[in-house]
Design brief:
By secondary structure, the chain is an alpha+beta fold. It is built from four helices and six strands. It starts with a helix and ends with a strand.
């Protein structure tokens, strides 16, 4: 199925910037109205091309769907990074979740940038 121009631009933005809130996406793509941005986000979510992450308690961020990874978040500047999650860690989590079907693993490590 063909993607709309706004959906293509959201995917491109998330590839370059990483996890962003809907407000941040809208700010970057200000040639589209907010309704179009939210519709595109919902469509990309339903197609499994992006996923929702909770890096802040008050709002959701969105990122490209990918292999499981950890998020790092600087408590001073708010910068978010990614660390690939080792396969062994995923296997350990699954081992302790025998009576539970895991849909997603979301881990955020808070700290300070070294820069």
């Amino acid at each position: 199925m063909r993607k709309s121009k706004s959906a293509e631009m959201i995917i491109s933005l998330l590839e370059n910037k990483g996890a962003l809130s809907a407000k941040e996406i809208s700010t970057h793509l200000n040639s589209f109205d907010r309704v179009t941005i939210y519709r595109s986000i919902n469509k990309l979510l339903s197609e499994g091309l992006i996923r929702e992450v909770n890096l802040e308690k008050s709002f959701h961020s969105y990122e490209l769907s990918s292999l499981p990874h950890l998020h790092t978040k600087c408590v001073k500047c708010g910068k978010v990074g990614h660390i690939d999650m080792p396969k062994k860690l995923i296997e350990e989590i699954a081992k302790y979740s025998k009576n539970f079907n895991i849909h997603d693993i979301e881990i955020t490590v808070n700290g300070e940038c070294k820069d």
